[in-house]
Amino acid sequence: MLGSTLVAATGCGGSTSSGGNSGGTAGTAGTTGETPENVAGDYTVGLTNISNSCPTMADGWTDGAMTEGVDFLITQKGVAISAETMGNPALYFLLLLGANEFTGEIHGSHFVLTNHGNKEYTYDACSYTIDAVVEGDLDGDAITGTLTYTPIIKESPDCEGYTCQAAQTFTGIRPPT
Known about the structure:
Elements: H1 2-7, H2 29-32, E1 41-52, E2 66-77, E3 80-86, H3 87-97, E4 101-107, E5 110-116, E6 121-123, E7 126-139, E8 142-153, E9 166-173
Antiparallel strand pairs: 1-2, 1-9, 2-3, 3-4, 4-5, 5-7, 6-7, 7-8, 8-9
């Protein structure tokens, strides 16, 4: 199910922005003096498809479809966090985005991680890459939030009017420390 969920996002014509989403930047604890929650850990995550406005992935997307058992490893240094998918789901992120690593920050118990995909796609005469943004909250040993896939369109008149987005909710748990 994960394969059809993630790989299907490859045909999404999208946003006319030329830059990436603001998913946070990697920082250090010393830059803000902030002491965020400890989100580091090896999570087992479940994903549920919630919305898709991308016309070219309509055949591979089913609202409500679920994928269980996705391994998601988060590491942390101060507010700076990074994460990667593990096992078979990592292959899907590699196929879809060109990488299975995410970077971002945590502030308090809220975190944002971004994978600025480097794999290029075309839809008609428009070319784009896909950003995947994980935005969530930590509550004890559980994380919940949304994973959003957004095409990042190259500036071109051929891309005028291409906008779409696909989203999944997630819930995950790490073994207690």
